[in-house]
Amino acid sequence: MQIPRLHPDTIEEVKLRADIVDVISEYVVLRKRGKDFVGLCPFHDEKTPSFTVSPYKQMYYCFGCQAAGNAIKFVMDLGKRQFAEVVLDLAKRYQVPVKTLEPEQRQELQRQISLRDQLYTVLASAAQFYQHTLRQSQGQKAREYLTKIRQFQEETIQQFGLGYAPPGWETLYRYLVESKHYPLQLVEQAGLIKPRKEGGGYYDVFRDRLMIPIRDLQGRVIAFGGRTLKEEQPKYLNSPETELFSKGKTLFALDEAKDAISKVDQAVVVEGYFDAISLHAAGINNAVASLGTALSIEQVRLLLRYTESKQLILNFDADKAGINATEKAIGEVSNLVYTGEVQLKILNLPHGKDADEYLHDHTASDYQQLLKDAPLWLDWQIQNIIKNRDLKQATDFQQVTQQIVKLLQNIVNSDTINYYVSYCAEILSLGDSRLKPLRVENLLTQIKPNSLKSLSPRINKPQPQTPKLSLVNTERTLLERAEASLLIIYIHSSEQRQIIIDDLETRNLEFSLSHHRFLWQQMLEFPLDEVDLISSVQNRYLELGEELEIVSHLFHLNEINKTKILRTPQVIQAALACMERVFREKRCRYFIEEWKKIDPPQPEKDKYYAEAIYIEKIHLQDLDKQQTPSNLGAELY
User: Which residue(s) pair with 51 in the sheet?
Assistant: First the structure.
């Protein structure tokens, strides 16, 4: 469901009614300490409580991991849920009327919410029906399949709510519509029945199949997967797309796996339902299944919420079909790998087995070791390229080189390119170290045709030297502190806000770091005299789905930040001077690099860049006269 943007009144009313102590107490044991409450932080392992909840401020803060926010953010972070979804749940719990920014959408939103609630109820009833049928005489074949062929224990069968759809064409239809009196249209919208093409009436979508419930992150049934118990096609049948279920946005068993993924900082993605179930039964609880589709960006980003290292291991079959399925499954994810957003590994089990088959003959420890040894996707790709190739043969050597170049051209990070160029040159050299430099040059030339030319010295061209600026090596660190200092003062000292805006405008300066720039843009949308600026900005982050952790420390006045507030004028001037210095140094380096690129010489352009560099140097000298770089840094600590 695409939820319209919620009205600020609804968000504020939820904040007012949803007491933070009441909300957090459902997940954390809190003890009164003075005006606040303390407990063990749910976001990291600790033995001594460092998690503080303030009823007065309606905020929480962990002194151990710096997690912070209000009741809405707590529920979002703990359950890895979206802002609007959490607000709607809290609104329902605390009986807050829901309004959207567009009044005409309110009725449609309420209709969608009501429909979703009804669909959850129908699907839960269907799941109970299938589970009950599994234990009847007609479900004996399905039970034997689970216990003897799949070797599942009763505990696993119950954990995943496995069931059986009887062979009759209208069995579920009669149960839900005639016995339970659910509206016919609702059962159809749940994806459980379909209208007959001829003769009228409806028939069950799933018949004579082993039923596997597909659940959302809260453990609610949203769809089903059905496996045939006969030799018929399709072997697996999934529910159609519904209001609740989108195959490309859902991962099987994620509700069971999310905590383990966070704990081990790694997610394992397998092909089938039973692969995932078998892994969980073996105690490998960080496994999910992709529902037989190519991994989508939405699915991957869903998994990345739970792993800090962004590590995914894709475990599909090791035979030719499995390798093709792996390459297909990667789909859009390859772009995230090339840019370094995902650390993707590939696990191909020996003898072409899938995870379920492998665990019948091996221990969980054996599988864990294979996970540990799984190669990175790029290494896996390279090994597949050279597999069954004779690099001593000219044709094979040429084809392998071309495929390697095509692969490496997609890598964005220069350090990663350098590593794999060296690695592949080693392979292409066939152990002859004398050939490796030649192979490296050959690969680089093909990957970046202009890279070698750009590295060669220019002839008859004076080489301007980069000015020896004291902040070049620590530029990022000082800029981070400078911008953070200005933002801290702006947040906590309302009387300084106009001064900061004016000074930035006078010096023609902007925030350079993206997370600071985004925070600044959000704060400028609120009045200068906004009393509760922290809470307002936090809500804006949550509503837009942006990560708040990277700037959350700015909202809390520790001892260092309190000192900055006490000496506001000095800190503001030091921060502005630092920002301007970095700005001028960047411009100076830019003009020098552009000047170097002029070939052949062009007098007008040479003169322009020479004058531009001179002007920046003058500005930098003026900044040095105003304040020494050492004092500049000291004011920002």
Answer: 39, 62
Q: Tens of pLDDT along 414-460?
A: 778 888 999 999 999 998 888 888 888 888 888 865 433 333 333 23
* Residue with the two structure tokens 């789905």: 545
Closest C-alpha among 227, 283, 225 to residue 251: 225
Token couple for 473 = 């090596």
**Paired sense of beta strands 287-289 and 311-315, if any:** unpaired
**In the block, which residue shows the tokens 């094979």?**
396
CA angle at 137 for the pair 131 and 143, rounded to the nearest 5°: 55
pTM of the predicted protein model: 0.61
Please compute, for residue 534, the number of CA atoms within 13 A of its CA located in the half-sphere on the CB side.
19
pLDDT in tens, 455-491: 333 323 334 444 333 334 456 677 888 899 999 999 9
* Cross-strand bridge partners of residue 165: 209
Over its C-alpha atoms, the chain yields an Rg (Å, rounded) of: 31
Q: Are 226 and 264 in contact (CB under 8 A)?
A: no
AA identity, residue 463:
Q
Q: What is the largest CA-CA distance in the chain?
A: 93
Three-class SS state of 289? strand
- The CA distance from 322 to 328, in Å, is 10
Q: Write out the two tokens for 223.
A: 């769809």
